[in-house]
Amino acid sequence: MDILSNLALGFSIALTPWTLMLAVIGAFVGTIIGALPGLGPSNGVALLIPISFSMGLDAISALVLLTSVYYGAMYGGRISSILLNIPGDEPAVMTTLDGYPMAKQGFASDALVISGVASFVGAFLATIALMLMAPLLAQVAFKFGPAEYFALYMLAFCTLGGIGANNQAKSAMAAAIGLGIAMIGLDKTTGMTRFTFGNLHLNDGIDFLVAIVGLFAVAEVFHFIESHGKDSAIGVKLGKITVNWAKMWSTRWAMLRGTVIGFAAGVLPGAGASLGSFLAYMGEKAIARDPESFGKGNPRGVAAPEAGNNAAAGGALVPMLTLGVPGSGTTAVLLALLLTLNITPGPLLFTDRPEVVWGLIAALLIANIVLLVMNVPMVKIFVHILSVPSAILLPGVTMIAFVGIYSLTGSSFDMLMMIGFGVMGYVFRKLDIPTVPVILGILLGNAMEDNLRRAMVLSDGDWTYLFSSPIAVGLWLAAALGFVAPMFLRGVLKRPPVPATDSYDSD
Amino acid sequence: MKGDRIFGLVMMVVALGYLLSASTVETSFLSDPVGPRVFPYIIGALVMICALVMVLRPDPDVDWPGPAMVMTLGAALLALVLYALTIKPLGFILPTMLASGFLSWQISRRPAQAAIAGAGLGIGLYILFKTVLGLGLHGLPRFLMG
């Protein structure tokens, strides 16, 4: 009953015409962002944070707008996967495996409808699971002290670095660089400046939005200029959109299995949507009676990964809202949004500001219904947008990145720093160093140090205090396992060959 | 091979500088048992270890861009830096037209299309941001606005 009354509160906030309009706009923009190769949920949301902040939206409006963009991007990624064989973003990679063959055989409309419905099933059920699970986890989170939080941050870095990267040293380095950048500026406890080298611009530290937009969006510009001309895939003609109910009904279990696997993958800190869709696809293939038909246009090969990546998007919100620890690149960006809006995620959020949490959940449910309508009957609109040439699109995206940071900070110094982060992101990608741990480090660095120092105050400098509670020990063990296990599992979890692509999104 | 080694060495130098800089952070007598230096020390040491691993066990090298592409990327970088420096004194529209037109030309190599894209983006984005989204932007150079 508690949940129902909370949900009623949420809908009373989210069902105003203004919020509904924001959800529709966010879902529309998000689908476009997802569909465009090279732009995905994380850089799309990153681009829009500074702008929505400069527009002076209040906390709930901004949250509704940007989470709609987030969900929309998860829906939109499949469109270019199916029609162009170019994944619109990283989680949509698995959808190309069966989606493009289906389109080539003349079933483009079926593939789009099934994947659209699968996205809805995954996202909708995951939002309901989020609703049931988040308050429970928030209860557990109340038992967390500074030692547990420190261990939890370690867990996030370790699993993110372990699962997300090919080389553990490189992801650990990326996390350390992010933490190092977070140290710049005033030390809250002593009031002394650190690593500013006398530059007054650095006294407040480096704005994480500058780093995020630089690493995710500006780096994409350099990457795109380098790879232009390679995305000359010939699109598949799309006829009239019709719904083949029988075919869709035959994929119902694939959708549900994909949802469960995706949601579980999303809840794990550090895993995220790409892993969710990957595991959902591999799971579906493993239990299928006809595994050889996967990769040749099997509708279940479209339904499972799409349900998986959308469910993972919902699952990733669970640790982000209850513990303040994001599970993926995109939720790291959403965490940045919350921090910008002065909302501190964590168990207290559920008791102190229920209107934020439940308004957000209600908005997600609404956004999903809007997205189902946009992505099944109205999918043709987005197909037209895909034909905008990149020579217009990319400069436009770049300028949006600059305007966002400029209207937020009004300083050339921050824009130059953003370009610097862009160059860094480009070099890191060349060297196969993941950039998401850098973002996570910048976002969590101060909280992590703060918790370490508070733990040491409590224990009067005794470092064994960090391992003194069962919860903390469990988290440390999970962290060690999450970092080391992928080294051994890498052979088992080998990704199937995916079509050569130049789109990329660090989720 | 080479890329990882060079980056590892650069990061070792950076980490050393970071550690040295951390050792000069002033602590006040009010500080806690850990103080403001320990966490940066841990970070610096971690970077040092990871950089060492990268130098000793580098991954196979990737395709670095050729000289022509480096020039192109350098030009794009220069255009972005100039854009960042001129958007304030010259207003939004003109620098945006030039920068987006230049980037467009770099991608398509079609001057006419690039000119139209630049002009369209400069004006279109200004209208979008200023009128629709209500951001506080100056459209024209300050001295023309009076």
Q: What does this protein look like?
A:
The complex is a heterodimer of chains A (507) and B (146). Chain A has helices at 2-14, 17-35, 41-54, 59-84, 93-141, 146-164, 168-182, 208-227, 245-249, 252-267, 273-287, 299-315, 317-323, 329-340, 347-352, 354-375, 379-385, 390-409, 412-430, 436-459, 470-489, and strands at 185-186, 193-194. With 507 residues, chain A is an all-alpha fold. Chain A has one domain (2-233, 244-489). A two-stranded antiparallel ribbon of chain A has the order 1-2. Chain A is globular and about 70 Å long. Chain B is mainly α and 146 residues long. Chain B folds into two domains: 2-56; 67-145, no CATH class. Helix content of chain B is 73%, strand content 0%. Chain B is built from six helices and no strands. Chain B has helices spanning 2-23, 38-56, 67-90, 93-108, 111-132, 142-145. In chain B, helix 4 (93-108) runs antiparallel to helix 5 (111-132). The model of chain B has no long low-confidence stretch (mean pLDDT 87).
Helix count, DSSP H or I runs of 4 or more residues of chain B: 6
End-to-end Cα distance of chain B:
57 Å
Q: Tell me the series of helices and strands of chain B, N- to C-terminal.
A: HHHHHH
Name the beta content range of chain B.
under 5%
Q: Tell me the major beta sheet of chain A.
A: 2 strands, antiparallel
Please compute the radius of gyration of chain B using only Cα atoms: 24 Å
Roughly how much helix do the residues of chain A carry, as a percent range?
A: over 70%
